[in-house]
Design a protein that fits this description.
mainly alpha
């Protein structure tokens, strides 16, 4: 049914947890959540408007890499 597609049974138990990556790999998030959400919204808006999403993604990747270089 369409309800199962939108809300699969495992939804209630799936959680994003980066603690192992932090502990074992000394990983740290370099893109603040608000910026990641803004970039995602820009992508979906561009996609629905038929814009060049490849160019947008390339620009976002370049922005991300330049931010990482400053760490």
């Amino acid at each position: 049914s369409s309800d199962l597609r939108l809300n699969p049974p495992e939804t209630s138990v799936l959680r994003f947890d980066s603690s192992k990556a932090r502990e074992q790999l000394d990983w740290a998030c370099r893109l603040p959540l608000d910026e990641a959400l803004r970039w995602s919204a820009q992508f979906y808006q561009a996609m629905t408007q038929g814009a060049d999403v490849r160019a947008l993604m390339q620009s976002q990747i370049e922005d991300y890499l330049s931010q990482c270089a400053s760490f």
